Structure formats: C-alpha cells, structure tokens
Amino acid sequence: MTFVLFGCTKDEITPRDYPRIRTYSVTEITPTGARFNGEITFTSVDIVDHGFLWHTTNSVNFTTATKISLGPKSDAGLFDVLLDTNLPFGKTFYMRTYAISNDNVVYGEMVAFKYTQ
C-alpha cells in the first residue's frame, strides 16, 4: 500500500518599502559614448534620485564611480541616458543603476561593456 500526501501552503507577499530596480545591457556603444538602460520595476515610495554609476573597475558605488543623476521619479518605468564621453578601444567599463528613496539606496545588477568596433 502506498500513501501520497499533498500539502499546500499559501505564499505570503511581504510588502517592500524600497524600489526594485534592474540594469539592462549597454547599447549604442561607439568611440564617443554609449546608451545606459535601466528600469524601476516596482516602487511603493517616492524616489528622490535615480540614474547610473559607471567606472573602469567592477567596484561601482557612490565613492568610486562617476554618477549620472536623472533626479526624482514617482513611478515605475524604463529610463536611459546617452553617455557622451570618449571610450578607448577595447577598455572594459562597468555600469549599474541606482535608486534612492528617503530611507534606502538600491543598486541594480552590474554590467560590463567596451567599445570594440
């Protein structure tokens, strides 16, 4: 005789009082710049600043990186900016998104990019 037991549990959704953010691939990479792309996928709070951080090392944070601020944002959605700078051939750079609320700083994933054409 075989017994099979099944159980169900209900997933409990935990409210989050901070934004959720994603970093997308860098596009339009040329010797004179690149397009940074990101998205705020959810927010239940006002965002006082959002944008991109980029640097030549993979230690990308507010103390090491160059910041491109896009200012406040009140809702979720895509955002991008065209970086206007000289990019040396073959040099790897690192970029990530950020969002700041009154109580939290949230970073997106880090992506690497380089000019190779």
What does this protein structure show overall?
The chain has 117 residues and is mainly β. 0% of the residues lie in helices and 53% in strands. It has a 4-stranded antiparallel beta sheet, with no helix packed on it. Strand 6 (92-101) and strand 7 form a beta hairpin. It is elongated. The protein starts with 19 loop residues before the first strand and ends with a strand. The model has no long low-confidence stretch (mean pLDDT 90).
SSE map:
Blueprint: E1 20-30, E2 33-42, E3 47-55, E4 66-69, E5 77-84, E6 92-101, E7 105-114
Antiparallel strand pairs: 1-2, 2-5, 3-4, 3-6, 6-7
* Helix count, DSSP H or I runs of 4 or more residues: 0
Q: Looking at the structure, what is the overall shape?
A: elongated
Radius of gyration: 19 Å
Indicate the mean pLDDT: 90
Main beta sheet, described? 4 strands, antiparallel
Distance between the termini: 68 Å
**DSSP helix fraction:** under 10%
